[in-house]
Amino acid sequence: MANDVRPSELGTHDQPDFAAKPPSERHATADEVYSVFTVTEKKLIILTGLLAGFFSPLSSSIYMPALNTISSDLHVSSAKINLSVTIYLIVQGVAPMMIAGFSDSAGRRLAYVICFTIYIAANLGLALQNNYAALMVLRCLQSGGSSGTVALANGVVGDLVTSSEFQGFETLSLVIGGLLSQTLGWHCVFWFLLIFARAFFLPLLFFFPETCRKVVGDGSVPPPTLSIGATQALQDSISQSSVYVGSRCWVQETQQYLTDFPIEKAGLQVALPLFYIGAVSVIAYGWVMNYKVNLAGPIILLFLMGYSLTAAYQVLNILMVDIYPEKPATATAASNIVRCELGAVASAVIVPMSDAMGRGWAYTLLALIFIGYSPALVVVITYGMRWRKAKLEKMETHAQEKEKKEMQKQQDLEKRMEGGKAEGGKMEGGGAHSRATKEKD
User: Fold this and answer.
1) Is 249 within a domain?
2) Residue 277 confidence (pLDDT) above 80
3) How would DSSP label each residue in 260-311?
4) TM segments (predicted)?
5) Residue 352 maps to which CATH number?
6) How many angstroms separate the CA atoms of 436 and 441, rounded?
7) Is residue 183 domain-shared with residue 317, that is, in the same domain?
8) Total tally of structural domains belonging to the chain
9) CB neighbours of 155 closer than 8 A, spacing ≥ 6?
10) Which of 242, 299, 320, 411 has a 20 to 30 Å separation from 337 between CA atoms?
11) CB 327 within 8 A of CB 108
């Protein structure tokens, strides 16, 4: 397969400046190589990154069914236990901002190692503790360790391919959390996370390659020694099964970062209808819960909310990566901090709002607030491509000015070196003339 051939096997070639020239600044051709990783390797790497990103929503949702049990065992009110959810969401929004910027400069692999080390240590502490204060502190650490993996996953996708997919697994984690907390106790929830994280982290530590374009370019530049993974062993052991497992993460190689292509309109035309469906579902859910109808009603509406709002968010997430391909992890983290902080506020105020206004009006108010911000997306559809072109032109101008300054510095250095040589020649000539005069005398 032609796409599976590395450029290094075809012959030598010059290495472009990937850090200075992100893919959005280059007009792609059909033959342009975005990454030297083969299609199979890309599937495996992206699948690993997406599975690593699974730990953040897993740690959040698996905890929910155990809230009442934890409240009873620790002898604290439900309101205090809900604070552990709020603090988790707050840290979940802030932590990716730090780890994303770090990964964009130091590399994805080292960032993954740091995240999982913190996450595993926090889960061990949570599984052993029986104190409310310890619960709060360790939940902060757990959130900080796991939340960065979502931004890193999008960063890995942005490093390897030109568009991305991400699918959540919250439903499965809710079922697992409920079974563990009811049958084995709430501590087993954190033991499960600890075992799962360790089992995943060891292969990642030894086999996951560096993908950050500032560190390894298109993958052909050797990474620092500590970042080199045994990628060949990974390829040899599971390359046959990767065709099937990685198919869900397959992305076409056609370049999508075309300056004149309206990616904002293409993405938001899909996201807006889903967003409005989700908002209507939130309103309906509030009134269904207010009148306490049959259980089937809330379940159906929760399904509609989960599907539509999650799908809309993922479309927006993909758009963020497409607009900022030079820093995909940082862009995702910026989006994530807004989402998580709003989620933290909503989780803190929804119970008082429901008590004061009733569930119907409380959820209606939240949905109307969301709908009130939706015209901003219409503005992006209208002016987004124009803004993106202006950004690219500004970046190109900045890169050209930087290149001119570097060339000027190089020319000045060469002139100084030539001047130094000429001065040295004059001094040698003067010394020889002085010696000749002395000999004549």
Assistant:
1) no
2) yes
3) TS-HHHHHHHHHHHHHHHHHHHHHHHHHHHHHT--THHHHHHHHHHHHHHHH
4) 44-63, 83-103, 110-128, 184-208, 270-289, 295-316, 337-354, 360-385
5) 1.20.1250.20
6) 9
7) yes
8) 2
9) 100, 103, 104, 108, 211, 212, 328, 329, 332
10) 299
11) no
Residues 159 and 195 in one domain: yes
Q: Which of 249, 235, 258 is nearest to 4 (CA)?
A: 235
Range of the domain at 49: 32-232+255-373
Between the alpha carbon of residue 251 and those of residues 40, 263, 265, 332, the distances in Å are: 11, 16, 20, 19
Q: Are 367 and 280 within 8 A, CB to CB? A: yes
Token pair recorded at residue 261? 């292509």
193 alpha carbon, distance to own chain's centre:
21
Residues 293 and 264 in one domain: yes
- pLDDT at residue 24, as a whole number: 41
Is pLDDT of 8 > 60?
no
What pLDDT, on a 0 to 100 scale, did the predictor assign at position 287? Answer: 92
Per the listing, tokens 């803190």 go with 348
Tell which residue, 42, 280, 301, 306, has the closest CA to residue 168: 306
pTM check: above 0.70: no
* CA distance to 45, 158, 194, 292, per residue, from 204 (Å): 10, 19, 15, 47
In this structure, the chain runs to a length of 441
Q: Do residues 100 and 328 make contact, with C-beta atoms less than 8 angstroms apart? A: no
Rounded CA separation 363/368 (Å): 9
Residue with tokens 């190692």: 113
